[in-house]
Amino acid sequence: MIRPLSCLALLSLCAFGFSALADEKEEAGKKPDTEKKEDAKSGDKKPADHKPEEKPKEEKPVVTQGEVTIGGQQVKFQAKTGLLPLLKEDGSGEKAKIFYVYYQALGDDGKPLAPKDAAKRPITFCFNGGPGSSSVWLHFGGLGPRKVDIDPQGLQASPHTAVVPNPNSILDVTDLVFIDPVGTGASRPAKGEKGEQFWSVNGDIDSIGEFIRSLTTREQRWASPKFLCGESYGGIRGSGLCDFLASKFGLYVDGFVCVSGVINFENIGGSLQGALSFLPSYTATAHFHKKLPPDLQADRDKAIAEARTFAQGDYALALLKGDSLPAADRTRIAEKLARLTGLDRDLIERAHLIISPGLFMENLLRKEGKIVGRYDGRVTTEDYDRLNTHPEFDPSYTNIYGAFSSAANASIRSDLNYEWDLPYTILGGVNWSYHDFDGEVVNLEDRLAKALKTNTKLRVLFCLGYRDLAVPMDSTLYSIEHLHIPADLHSNLTIQYYESGHMMYLNQPDAEKLRRDIVTFIRGK
After folding, report:
1. Residues 353 and 455 in one domain
2. Whether residue 242 is found in the same domain as residue 314
3. Cα separations (Å) of 340 from 144, 334, 348, 378, 487?
4. How far apart are CA 118 and CA 106, in angstroms?
5. What is the CATH classification number for the domain harbouring 166?
6. DSSP string of 375-407?
7. What is the distance, to the nearest Å, from the Cα of residue 359 to the centroid of all Cα atoms in its chain?
8. Has residue 412 been placed in a domain?
9. Basic and acidic residues composition bias: which ranges (predicted)?
10. What's the pLDDT tens digit per position in 70-97?
């Protein structure tokens, strides 16, 4: 997830260190008598007896078993839950411990299908975004074998909801690893290590990449088809990982599932391109709430196409002209925007033709006294402060946050039998830095393009929600169209659309479609 509203936020677990070293033998290191006499003569003081520092024993993952019915078939599985240590490059100690849950499907013999059949059994590494989010959203919302019990439309969930089997899990076709980046979930820097080394674009990519390499080695999965699945800021993380894993370790991934993923921050910010990227999503959201003129209301796809054409033509030119735009043209553009968004023309003119997400969320249903959600524009709630120009909070986040927090904390301890007494950080808790971009906009289009060009077998599935007002669909489309890759490589890219928003898997029809799309993608069809 990217962080709600004011935070650019928007699911990886670590294990304790090493087996203890054997104590040195009692006689080791004793000096001969002649050396002792020399020491006495020189008056040197002997240091106190000192044993070498013991490295902490590595905590073994907790292993549990379960089953889930997917597509009418019973899938038995094993889950490993634990903390995997990230080691310093010289092997002298730990940098961090990353919390993870590793699900493996079991065969008829009750044993995991891999590593015995590793070459035939895919493995998918999953993470959310933020930056600063744990993987609970994809884990307990989208792809894992258990999910939060939420209403079928994904609009509301009780904070005390149960965790139920997930019939739309993809565990039948791929093993799954859910990763919490350092500072999220139960993942923490090692004692004496600073979290800042992980809390930057490249530091994050490096640490998650090292985790993936380490787990792949430990679990004997180098021969397996390997996939990444990242949501929201996970688009940036995943784009970087496709390049990093190949160039650093020679670990080539077969595919990247980019769920509501941002790749270039400029496309979702307050820039000209950001304003253009949001317009089709505003139109789709206004259509859902029946705020468009009759001809557009009659055909959603036509309405979105009209918004996209306008954004790439007259609207873009008008924004480029800024204050030099003639008054008559300004009114004409405002009227067109009103037609496509359901907002008042005067409001749009007062906003200088730039409709921010907050302005849209606050004003689309203002007459009804409601605001709409950012993560999902279908979600509404009462506007408790009518004087606000922007919404006080995001109902599509607050409606589900308690449920996911409750589900994660309960299921990790009860279903996965993992005991963790410190706070499990769902979202937040990291002080992110963009210093490695030297003040420039974070843009990983070049890293993804490089990965596609150097690994021509790499495929990417982009999953986009029509009513996503956090990472609008056209922000991702713009990145796809500006990868500057050879024309034949575009056949490696697939785009799928969903009726809801950022976390489309919360809407049952979308969850079913998402499963079908990912399964088809992994199978290479």
Report:
1. no
2. no
3. 38, 10, 12, 17, 33
4. 13
5. 3.40.50.1820
6. S-TT-EEE-S-TT-SS-SS-HHHHHHHHHHHHH
7. 26
8. no
9. 27-61
10. 999 999 999 999 999 999 988 789 999 9
